[in-house]
Automatic annotation (TrEMBL):
Stress-response A/B barrel domain boundaries: 71-161
Pfam families membership: Dabb (PF07876)
InterPro entries tied to this protein: Dabb, Dimeric_a/b-barrel
Protein name (database record): Stress-response A/B barrel domain-containing protein
UniProt source species: Puniceibacterium antarcticum
Coiled-coil ranges per UniProt: none
Domain of life: Bacteria
Length: 161
């Protein structure tokens, strides 16, 4: 026998109030279809509702939650010759003089991960907008850093999130 839709909707409303997780999980519309999901050899039922892309990114810092900047720029570098890593760090450190980032950092990879040792240097920068990142890349110091680092590097992988 089929359950009354209002009773089923009431159960989902009650369940949505007790779920622990991001707000996009707790506020799934009751009209979204139900689909089975296999997780760790158990069968669960979730509402098929994608996470909204416009939701801001948050980071937990202990008991407080802080809003993250609009754009994070992460670049991984590997050196052709391991003896040149310090030169790569120095060349990339020039980028800290460009004023358009709200946070900028260049670090050597500690290489504590035993499965991956390809990355030698990491650049991490935060920007309040895409326009700020474009202005950062248009600065002459950016090109100067490229000219110093490009001949020394083997791999460059960038991600903007």
């Amino acid at each position: 026998m089929r359950e009354d839709p209002l009773t089923q909707a009431g159960r989902w409303a009650a369940l949505s109030r007790v779920l622990k997780g991001p707000s996009w999980v707790r506020h799934i519309p009751l009209t979204a279809p139900i689909r089975p999901v296999a997780h760790q050899a158990k069968l669960w039922f979730c509402r098929a509702h994608p996470r909204p892309r416009a939701e801001p990114s948050f980071q937990s810092t202990g008991s407080t939650v802080t809003q993250r900047p609009t754009l994070r720029h992460i670049v991984f570098f590997s050196a052709k010759d391991k003896a040149d890593i310090h030169k790569i760090v120095e060349g990339l450190s020039l980028l800290a003089q460009i004023p358009h980032s709200s946070f900028f950092e260049v670090q050597r990879n500690t290489q504590s991960d035993q499965l991956s040792s390809e990355v030698d240097v990491v650049v991490y920068a935060e920007f309040e907008s895409e326009e700020a990142m474009e202005a950062y890349k248009a600065d002459p110091i950016y090109q100067q850093s490229i000219d110093l680092v490009r001949p020394l590097r083997d791999l460059r992988i960038a991600a903007d999130i």
